[in-house]
């Protein structure tokens, strides 16, 4: 079953509980179990999840249906998070943070600049051919570039014809410096040379793409070890095709033994991938998944956090993910964005914040990825495509553009007290009052998520640092 369908099935199962009777709960558990098994999740993991849900729900005497529903949601959410969480931090995250702490250039006694010892963070990519290594290298480089780091790409893949050209084209498009060679055949030499060059130029992050093979074989593992010894990476990332389902576990274990990588990027986790199997299989190897690739374009790349992933899967929305996404836009000097972040930290989310964030999303694309983080939008998205999502978001912006400053800075209750305002805004935006009410309803959901996020600020599962 593809991921989008899994989300719908899980949501349907949860919302099927109305009275909270034992029969309903049993049927919900059965639906969840079937959906997970059909998504390729390992049978033992599913059985454990089923038992955990059953045990936790029977521990309570509270028979109030609404309390039962809430508790079930929480239990299922926690258990699903558990399923995809490796409980491991990616290695050396602090070192990367320290990179930004460079002081002014130091001069020697004759006034010449002293080149400080390199502080570059070297990342090496490994994985089978076709897994998406070259694509993910550029995606990761772009991710860090957008966050203010200087990044260099080294192509040490001499095995696959065209690998250097591919990396070069991607790098040029994203304006990221690159190094490679058409004539040199020794990948170890290229890797060492490229890393040295970028280190001399004081790059913050150097990403080395290595060769793959069609299958796991000794020559690939030998080459990985040699390159690793030559460039001594602080982080080795395995790139794996997420559509391989449960086979991900044995592949991850074999690579782990050979290259001792610290984290994983799962690719091809687009809405139509059978992703449930790969995520849970990899989590079972106790290796953190740090990003997932959700398409062929450079921006189709998401930080993987178990709680955010499950929130999105269940269609609850992921406000933390939204904020992460927007952080990538380099909006540090944008006043309305800064205000919006401040509000969010205080657990608030006004209509103006909603308007600011919606405008930001339009700059980011692809909209279907982003809109799935907005509470209440995922049901709608399952029925429509990119074009309709885009027009829906634009419509919401027109509606908020028709509000007064007082209305935008409010928490939305002003419209409940004075409903005629809704009619006026609808007229201004050329839409129906129902559409305005939908915007208000979505802002209310975001606002309640912002206050929940504040409450969860100390929850390590939601705030786990990324590299
Ligand atoms: P490599 O041999 O491991 O370097 O793999 P490539 O980076 O060349 O990728 C192989 C193919 O997978 C290319 O056609 C990529 O466009 C495609 N690809 C990579 N990542 C993703 C992804 O996240 N989603 C989709 N749909 N395709 C991807």
From TrEMBL:
<keyword id="KW-0256">Endoplasmic reticulum</keyword>
<keyword id="KW-0694">RNA-binding</keyword>
<comment type="function">
    <text>Signal-recognition-particle (SRP) assembly has a crucial role in targeting secretory proteins to the rough endoplasmic reticulum (ER) membrane. SRP is required for the cotranslational protein translocation for ER import and preferentially recognizes strongly hydrophobic signal sequences. It is involved in targeting the nascent chain-ribosome (RNC) complex to the ER and is proposed to participate in the arrest of nascent chain elongation during membrane targeting. SRP54 binds to the signal sequence of presecretory protein when they emerge from the ribosomes.</text>
</comment>
<dbReference type="GO" id="GO:0005783">
    <property type="term" value="C:endoplasmic reticulum"/>
</dbReference>
<dbReference type="GO" id="GO:0006616">
    <property type="term" value="P:SRP-dependent cotranslational protein targeting to membrane, translocation"/>
</dbReference>
<dbReference type="GO" id="GO:0030942">
    <property type="term" value="F:endoplasmic reticulum signal peptide binding"/>
</dbReference>
<dbReference type="GO" id="GO:0005525">
    <property type="term" value="F:GTP binding"/>
</dbReference>
<keyword id="KW-0963">Cytoplasm</keyword>
<protein>
    <recommendedName>
        <fullName>Signal recognition particle 54 kDa protein</fullName>
    </recommendedName>
</protein>
<comment type="similarity">
    <text>Belongs to the GTP-binding SRP family. SRP54 subfamily.</text>
</comment>
<comment type="subunit">
    <text>Fungal signal recognition particle consists of a 7S RNA molecule (scR1) and at least six protein subunits: srp72, srp68, srp54, sec65, srp21 and srp14.</text>
</comment>
<keyword id="KW-0378">Hydrolase</keyword>
<feature type="region of interest" description="Disordered">
    <location>
        <begin position="87"/>
        <end position="112"/>
    </location>
</feature>
<dbReference type="GO" id="GO:0008312">
    <property type="term" value="F:7S RNA binding"/>
</dbReference>
<keyword id="KW-0687">Ribonucleoprotein</keyword>
<keyword id="KW-0547">Nucleotide-binding</keyword>
<dbReference type="GO" id="GO:0005786">
    <property type="term" value="C:signal recognition particle, endoplasmic reticulum targeting"/>
</dbReference>
<dbReference type="GO" id="GO:0005829">
    <property type="term" value="C:cytosol"/>
</dbReference>
<dbReference type="GO" id="GO:0003924">
    <property type="term" value="F:GTPase activity"/>
</dbReference>
<keyword id="KW-0733">Signal recognition particle</keyword>
<feature type="domain" description="SRP54-type proteins GTP-binding">
    <location>
        <begin position="288"/>
        <end position="301"/>
    </location>
</feature>
<keyword id="KW-0342">GTP-binding</keyword>
């Amino acid at each position: 079953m593809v991921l989008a369908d899994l989300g719908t099935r899980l949501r349907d199962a949860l919302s099927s509980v109305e009275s909270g009777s034992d029969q309903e709960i049993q049927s919900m558990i059965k639906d969840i179990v079937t959906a997970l098994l059909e998504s390729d999740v390992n049978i033992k993991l599913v059985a454990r999840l089923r038992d955990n849900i059953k045990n936790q729900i029977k521990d309570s005497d509270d028979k109030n249906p609404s309390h039962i529903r809430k508790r079930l949601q929480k239990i299922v959410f926690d258990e699903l998070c558990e399923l995809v969480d490796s409980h491991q931090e990616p290695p050396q995250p602090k070192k990367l943070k320290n990179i930004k702490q460079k002081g002014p250039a130091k001069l020697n006694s004759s006034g010449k600049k002293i080149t400080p010892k390199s502080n570059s963070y070297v990342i090496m990519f490994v994985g089978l051919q076709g897994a998406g290594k070259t694509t993910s290298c550029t995606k990761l480089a772009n991710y860090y570039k957008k966050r203010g780091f200087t990044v260099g790409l080294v192509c040490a893949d001499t095995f696959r014809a065209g690998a250097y050209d591919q990396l070069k084209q991607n790098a040029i498009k994203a304006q990221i410096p690159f190094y490679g060679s058409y004539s040199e055949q020794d990948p170890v030499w290229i890797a060492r040379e490229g890393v040295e060059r970028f280190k001399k130029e004081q790059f913050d992050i150097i990403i080395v793409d290595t060769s793959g093979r069609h299958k796991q074989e000794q020559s690939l593992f030998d080459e990985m070890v040699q390159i690793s010894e030559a460039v001594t990476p602080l982080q080795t990332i395995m790139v794996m095709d997420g559509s391989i389902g449960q086979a991900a576990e044995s592949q991850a274990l074999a690579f782990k033994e050979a290259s001792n990588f610290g984290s994983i990027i799962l690719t091809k986790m687009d809405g139509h991938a059978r992703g449930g199997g790969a995520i849970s299989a990899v989590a079972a190897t106790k290796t953190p998944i740090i990003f997932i690739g959700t398409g062929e374009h450079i921006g189709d790349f998401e930080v993987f956090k178990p709680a955010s992933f499950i929130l999105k899967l269940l269609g609850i929305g992921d406000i933390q993910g939204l904020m992460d996404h927007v952080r990538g836009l380099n909006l540090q000097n944008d006043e309305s964005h800064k205000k919006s972040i401040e509000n969010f930290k205080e657990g608030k989310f006004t209509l103006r914040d909603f308007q600011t964030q919606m405008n930001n999303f339009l700059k980011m694309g692809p909209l279907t990825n982003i809109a799935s983080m907005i509470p209440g939008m995922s049901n709608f998205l399952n029925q429509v495509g990119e074009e309709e999502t885009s027009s829906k978001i634009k419509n919401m912006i027109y509606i908020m553009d028709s509000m007064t400053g007082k209305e935008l800075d409010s928490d939305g209750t002003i419209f409940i007290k004075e409903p005629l305002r809704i009619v006026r805004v609808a007229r201004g935006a050329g839409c129906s009052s129902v559409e305005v009410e939908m915007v208000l309803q979505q802002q209310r959901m975001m606002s309640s998520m912002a206050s929940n996020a504040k409450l969860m600020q100390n929850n390590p599962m939601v705030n786990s640092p990324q590299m």
